[in-house]
Write a structure and sequence with these properties.
2 domains; six-stranded mixed sheet; 3 helices; elongated
Length: 150
């Protein structure tokens, strides 16, 4: 299971890196567009286009900050650690699915198994937090049994 946890961690890291690169390129592109727009003398059209490009740059900067925040969250995880209770960095095998408690990166397929990378602050992450092997809980009216925690 440690190998699976390491692969899940790497998949999350790749997800974050892709988001950082995408957002960085978008910020650079928006800034380059805004800078090239300053050469125009189209009056009001120029001001509107520049304002829209500035808004796009600000939005992309927010996306970049969010991706960097995810990256920081990953630095708090030791993929080699072994867990008895569900918490940050845990791999949870449950009756309703397999969950990696790290960041919200969505579905990750390894081999023929599906895992869900979820944040500990997500609704499911909060329900699973602190549980141990054999514990039962419910989520949205669905019974969940924790089969194992790694």
């Amino acid at each position: 299971m440690q190998e699976i946890k390491h692969k899940l961690y790497n998949a999350c890291a790749a997800y974050v890196q892709e988001r950082i690169e995408t957002a960085s390129h978008a910020v650079e592109d928006a800034q380059a567009s805004a800078n090239s727009e300053t050469k125009s003398t189209a009056g009001d059209k120029h001001d509107t286009a520049r304002a829209m490009m500035q808004l796009a740059a600000e939005q992309n900067t927010k996306h970049l900050a969010a991706a960097k925040k995810l990256n920081h969250a990953l630095t708090l995880i030791d993929p080699k650690s072994v867990h008895d209770t569900v918490g940050l960095g845990s791999l949870v095998i449950a009756s309703n699915g397999n969950f990696y408690i790290a960041i919200s990166a969505g579905k990750i397929e390894l081999g023929n198994k599906l895992y869900f990378a979820i944040s500990p602050t997500s609704p499911m992450g909060q329900v699973l937090n602190g549980l141990k092997k054999g514990d039962e809980t419910s989520f949205n009216g669905m019974k969940i049994e924790v089969k194992d925690v790694f």
